[in-house]
Every structure is written in C-alpha cells, then in structure tokens.
Amino acid sequence: MASIFAKRMQELGTETAFEVLAKAKALEKQGREIIHLEIGEPDFETPKNIRDAATKAMNAGYTHYVPAAGIPELREAVAEYISKTRHIDVKPEEVVVTPGAKPIIFFSILACVEVGNEVMYPNPGFPIYESMINFIGAKPVPMPLKEENNFAIDTEDTVKKISNKTKMIILNFPENPTGGVLTKENLEAIFDKVKNRDDLIIVSDEVYSRIIYEGEHRSIASFLGMKDKTVIIDGFSKTYAMTGWRLGYGAMRKDLAEKISQLMINSNSCTCAFSQMAGVEALRGPQEEAERMVEQFRRRREVIVSGLNKIDGITCKKPQATFYVFPNVKGLKIDSRKLPDFLLHNAGVAALSGTSFGEYGKGYMRLSFANSIPNIEKALKRMDEALKTL
Ligand SMILES: Cc1ncc(COP(=O)(O)O)c(C=O)c1O
Predict the structure, then answer these.
(1) pLDDT tens-digit series, residues 53-72
(2) Distance between CA atoms of residues 236 and 275, nearest Å
(3) DSSP 3-state assignment of 234?
(4) Disulfide engineering: 131 pairs with which of 13, 182, 221, 360, CB 3.0-4.6 Å?
C-alpha cells in the first residue's frame, strides 16, 4: 500500500521516557497513584531570581524575534561561563543558543556527517544519538559502557574503533542513563588518537556537568588544541531546573557556529527571547539554589542506592553524577524489558528499561531520583513487595 511517509521516518527512534510518562498519566486518570521515577527532570521549581528575570524581560518587550544564534547578552554570558568552567577561551560568536540543548545534537550531525560516515556514541546512552545517526543514514558505532568499568568507556575498545571512517564521536559524560563519568585515562587516550585529525569532530554533551558528587567535571575540549575539534553541549534544563523553558546551547568553532545558526534560521528562527534573558540571570546570578539541588540529589542518591541493594535480585552501583541510577536487574525473575510495565501496573512505579537506551542496556533499568525522599522510600517498598510476588 502506498504511504504518505518518507522512508527515512522508519529510521527515526524516540525517547521512551515520554511514552512511559503517557502510560503513567493514563493510569493516574483512572485514579491510580503513580510514583514517577521515569522522566529525567529535576522536581524543583526554577529558582525565583530566574523566574523574576523572565517576567521582567517579558514586561520590557522581550517578546519578539531575536537573532537566530541567540541574543548578544546570553551569548556573552555563555562564552564567559564555558571559558571559566572548561579553562578555554570561548568567544560569543562561537556560541549558538537553541530551544534546549537537544537541537544542537541534531544540528551538529546534520552539519557535519555524510550518509555512510561512522559516528561513535555511548551505549547505553541518550537514545536521541542513535536515532539521529540512523535518521541521516550514517553508521552508528556503539561504545559499550559496562558496569565493571563503572560505566566509563573501555579505552582499548574505543581507541580500536576510531578509524578513518569515523566522522564524529559523541561523548556524554556525566552520562545519562548510567551516571558514569570518563576517566582521565579515557580522555587522554581519545585525545591521543584524534589530536591530529582535522576531519573528525567530537560532540561532547555536558548537560550534567554540574550534577557531580565526586571529583570535578572534565571536558575533552580542555585538552590542548581540542577546543576547535569539539562541540560542547550544555544547557539550563538540568542545572537550573528549567526543562520547560527550552533553553540550551552549543559552544564550537566559529565557522560551525555559523552553519548551526543557519540550521536555526531554517527550523526555529530563534529561541524564546525572555527565556534567554532568564538564562543570563541563571549564569550570572547567585548559584546557591543550583548547588542546593545537587545536595538534595546527593541525599536521595544514598536512599535509592541502599534501598535498591536491599531488594533481592537487584544490585546497584552508586552513580558518580547525574540524578539517575542504573541498577542491574539480571537477578530478577523477569526480563528487564518487561520490568517497567510490571512495576507500573503492580507497584505504581514508573521506570525505564535499560534497553530504552540501547542494546547494551539489557539487564538494567533506569530510575531517576529527581523525586522526594518519602516518594523514593515508598517506591522502593512497593517495588520490593511487587517483585516478591514473581
Ligand atoms: C544527555 C542529554 N542530553 C541532552 C538532553 C536534552 O536536554 P534539553 O532539555 O536541554 O534539551 C538530555 C535530556 O534529558 C539529556 O539527558
């Protein structure tokens, strides 16, 4: 039968978190009480100083089109922030502001990757990477993240996979869904292998760079000569609890920033003006609220990790960063792919299968601990009880 859809739509993936959220909402409509541990967003309110800055901007007329690459104040604030935190010299013209960090992933691939090129990406990983790579007809080359490596990459395997066909390496550390971070050895090995390659670009998705519990965030862009080979992706959603504001950015060499701005002109035109003014306040204003959120996440991490480890058949490593745990559920009497549905219906807990993040997520589950301690405790109790009935 004839179809109205372009063939490429068959290659497009999705983010299961939104599907599970819809299922959970449908159950809630029927009167069920569901604890949401599926969606990756801070449960806190956006800090007041940021909300006030948006209101002020809206009343001051920031309600119209603005430049495609972002308003100058925000590009300056981002350049300053990235320069300071990554120890490199980023200029405002090397920054492109987008509605959330997500579009930078798609735009970087569209701008740099040809059909048939190889793109390396972490697996289990944020599902949008594999989806976009497949969508444009490139070849996805997974970098498996294993529990025995603390969910860092396997240096030897990764270095072996970087070939002449590799056009892009996507890194996402701290990582969603595992909470893993790159080791110094990982970074040095990648740096050594790519430092002389002018035809290869690294996309470093660092949206969790501020939600770290041990040690400091390290970006590959900080290595000598790597600034111009790296697209740093960061944003406001996770650090400042601003998921609904749709505000993020990429920092990259100027010629690529111009191409990505052109993709913005062809798609969104620009990013919401008053959201951008709120972004200036987020970066330049007081940081205590953002730090307080991390301290809350740290406490919740203890509760969820120790609770999960008490459930028969589940073992859980303590994530070094992010607000996700990625417990091993291979000891349960149920396939990890069927586990989220089982938990949703039998425990009223919304969670995601590890396979929602790629084939190497089999045997695992992702839970977000961006929820209150009483809710996390209740979810753990209900999960334990439901799993005992298997
Ligand atoms: C690894 C990663 N990158 C990018 C994003 C997108 O964030 P934003 O809301 O800024 O588009 C997410 C959101 O879940 C994420 O986990």
Answers:
(1) 999 999 999 999 999 999 99
(2) 10
(3) strand
(4) 13
Q: Which atom of ligand 1 is nearest to the CA of 17?
A: 14
Among residues 381, 349, 382, 388, the alpha carbon closest in space to that of 366 is found at 349
Backbone phi, psi, residue 97, to 5°: -95, 135
How many angstroms separate the CA atoms of 236 and 240, rounded? 5
pLDDT of residue 19: 85
- For the record, the structure tokens of 379 come out as 């979810």
Whether 16 is in the pocket of ligand 1, judged by its Cβ within 6 Å, is no
Q: Please tell me whether the overall predicted TM-score, pTM, comes out greater than 0.70 for this model.
A: yes
**Does ligand 1 have an atom closer than 6 angstroms to the CB of 261?**
no
Q: By the 8 A CB rule, do 202 and 168 touch?
A: yes
Q: How far, in Å, from the CA of 208 to the mean position of ligand 1?
A: 9
Query: How far is the centre of ligand 1, averaged over its atoms, from the C-alpha of 358 (Å)?
Result: 16
Q: How far is the CA of 176 from the centre of ligand 1 (A)?
A: 9
